[in-house]
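FORM 12-B: Structure-to-Sequence Request
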């Protein structure tokens, strides 16, 4: 009995830095931009390469765990994660930091399925397992939600590299405890790994994302070709999965309207969560001069609402059923985005916190609704495959949230900034790329010109931020109508039969 709970403690300890690293850099953007002279494109890659790599590798790493045992997978994943954390902490260029973050994603892709497999093998009693899963879920959601606050606290007292360096002692403790306490498992050498398929998927995602990001600033024939190649690889991947006898992703599950709709909900909810945190962290620091810690504290109502929204969402689903609650979650997200688009974050604090709290609860409703819908729609023997797909949708949504919100912001910022007339023509492109690059540029100019440039950049960023939030609200409004239409009436019918 004692060993069970020790294994749970080890799993929680290793899962915490994995979940925190998904969002901890959001408040570190200004500091990183200044320290490494990051362009807008490089900044987006530093943040979202972690989730994109993790999304593409999480399924085959789960299969690898079945093949070698979750203990070995956890040890290998923890070692890679620890080494990548050390590498990221001392990276002295954008390229090195991006590579380190990619390796962090690889380690995390091993750790996440290893922790779930560890819970499944350790807690054979269903009630105990549900309790352990509840703790696991709380750690994951809480870690991601409070990542910006932790990042702000660290940056208030230490250099940005400490954000990664704190992972190293945790990883060392986990490796020792895992080797000492966690029992060995039987391996299944016949388990297919699908590593080639995973590499095709990751490469396709990165090529498409790279082409779109780069084309926003430097449109060229090469970017078109890269996009076509990436898109072709994605299409080829899907076609292969549909005909393969051992597919990495069971696309037949998407034929069920409840499952396909729920996957879309999970992905879009993560896009909203991560994208909004990213934009708000930049505005608070670049425009209003908040410190990283102050920015993290400002976002606290959003984090708390996400953390405590689960019981509220469960009550609503038990009382009213899936379809109306899922639609309500999407609709509330739309309303909160529209409200935030018209809010001045530096003067209307109560209004901003109220809208953020509503959005946090809405996102949690969407996430919980999607999970409940998937688990109720699939047969028991398909539950693991469906859960793995949902986990991939979470990570892909996090990566896409950074990319989509960041690209939209860059697009509107470049078209709305009115650069000072006396700014040299060769510097206009830099000033128009992003507010971070404008801030870096202002340090090289005389005080008067720097002041005018910062004012222009702040106004353009605020206007662009409002436009992006308005677009997000419109998308969620459309999605709420789609969710109401797409979710099968059988869901509500089944609920009424079970009452």
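FORM 12-B RESPONSE
SEQUENCE OUT:
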């Amino acid at each position: 009995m004692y060993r069970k709970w020790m294994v749970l403690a080890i799993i929680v300890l290793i899962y915490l830095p994995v979940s925190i690293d998904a969002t901890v850099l959001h408040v570190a953007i200004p500091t990183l931009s200044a320290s490494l002279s990051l362009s807008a494109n490089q900044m987006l890659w530093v943040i979202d390469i972690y989730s994109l790599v993790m999304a593409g590798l999480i399924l085959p790493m789960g299969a690898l765990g079945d093949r070698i045992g979750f203990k070995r997978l956890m040890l290998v994943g923890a070692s890679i994660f620890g080494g990548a954390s050390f590498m990221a902490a001392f990276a002295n260029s954008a390229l090195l930091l991006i590579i380190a973050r990619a390796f962090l994603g690889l380690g995390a892709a091993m750790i996440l399925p290893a922790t779930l497999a560890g819970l499944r093998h350790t807690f054979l009693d269903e009630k105990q397992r549900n309790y352990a899963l509840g703790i696991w879920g709380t750690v994951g959601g809480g870690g991601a939600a409070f990542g910006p606050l932790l990042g702000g606290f660290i940056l208030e007292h230490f250099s940005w590299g400490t954000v990664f360096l704190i992972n190293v002692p945790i990883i060392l403790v986990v490796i020792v405890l895992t080797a000492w306490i966690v029992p060995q498992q039987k391996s299944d050498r016949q388990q297919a790994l699908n590593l080639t398929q995973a590499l095709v998927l990751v490469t396709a995602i990165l090529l498409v994302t790279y082409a779109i990001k780069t084309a926003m600033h430097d449109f060229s024939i090469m970017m078109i070709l890269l996009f076509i190649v990436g898109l072709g690889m994605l299409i080829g991947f899907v076609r292969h999965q549909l005909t393969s006898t051992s597919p990495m992703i069971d696309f037949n599950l998407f034929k069920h309207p409840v499952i396909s709709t729920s996957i879309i909900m999970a992905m879009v909810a993560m896009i909203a969560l991560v994208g909004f945190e990213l934009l708000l962290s930049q505005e608070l620091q670049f425009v209003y001069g908040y410190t990283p810690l102050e920015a993290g504290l400002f976002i606290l109502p959003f984090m708390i609402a996400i953390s405590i929204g689960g019981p509220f969402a469960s009550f609503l689903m038990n009382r009213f059923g899936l379809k109306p609650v899922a639609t309500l979650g999407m609709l509330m997200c739309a309303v909160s985005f529209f409200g935030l688009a018209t809010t001045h974050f530096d003067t209307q604090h109560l209004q901003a916190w109220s809208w953020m709290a509503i959005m946090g609860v809405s996102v949690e409703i969407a996430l919980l609704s999607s999970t409940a819908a998937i688990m109720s729609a699939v047969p028991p023997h398909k539950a693991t495959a469906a859960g793995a797909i949902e986990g991939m949708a979470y990570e892909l949504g996090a990566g896409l949230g950074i990319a989509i919100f960041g690209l939209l912001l860059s697009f509107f910022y470049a078209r709305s900034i009115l650069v000072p007339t006396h700014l040299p023509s060769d510097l206009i492109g830099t000033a128009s790329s992003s507010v971070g690059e404008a801030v870096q540029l202002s340090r090289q100019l005389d005080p008067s010109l720097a002041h005018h440039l910062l004012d222009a950049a702040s106004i353009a960023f605020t206007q662009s931020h409002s436009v992006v939030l308005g677009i997000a609200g419109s998308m969620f409004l459309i999605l709420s109508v789609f969710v109401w239409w797409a979710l099968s009436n059988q869901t509500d019918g089944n609920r009424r039969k079970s009452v």
